[in-house]
Design the sequence.
């Protein structure tokens, strides 16, 4: 199976919103993506297994010598096909090209599968943010801050 990754364009705002909505309880609309992508250093990539069948996305930004993954998601029916991994490596390459030497992200402390995914890519826990995420029931959940050096090793 081949995997294609490309930079998201302005015409992909609805696609990004749709993918985000399929992946997360808190849904970001096309306007939210437009605002986020208007910030200097911010970019998005999409990934899929064929032509125009884009099933995964990442939103990231680079500032100075650091990159941050703001959001990454893969449609539920496309998970475990290597799309997320391909996106992280493509994002890391783009971030390094823009001068970043490390990459950060936050992940729910309770999300063991996602933590394992990032750990396998070389990310390590470097911090804890108490009450960072707001749950649908109004409670808060802790986030772990993860970091990896660039370039990522395959």
Sequence:
């Amino acid at each position: 199976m081949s995997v294609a990754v490309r930079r998201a364009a302005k015409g992909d705002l609805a696609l990004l919103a749709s993918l985000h909505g399929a992946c997360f309880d808190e849904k970001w609309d096309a306007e939210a993506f437009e605002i986020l992508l208007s910030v200097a250093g911010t970019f998005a990539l999409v990934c899929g297994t064929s032509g125009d069948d884009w099933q995964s996305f990442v939103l990231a930004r680079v500032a100075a010598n650091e990159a941050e993954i703001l959001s990454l998601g893969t449609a539920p029916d496309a998970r475990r096909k290597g799309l997320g991994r391909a996106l992280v490596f493509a994002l890391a390459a783009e971030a390094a090209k823009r001068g970043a030497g490390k990459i950060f992200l936050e992940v729910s402390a309770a999300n063991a599968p996602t933590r394992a995914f990032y750990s396998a890519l070389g990310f390590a826990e470097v911090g804890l943010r108490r009450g960072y995420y707001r749950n649908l029931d109004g409670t808060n959940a802790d986030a772990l801050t993860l970091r990896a050096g660039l370039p990522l090793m395959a």
The beta strands are 4-7, 42-48, 54-63, 66-74, 102-108, 124-134, 140-149.
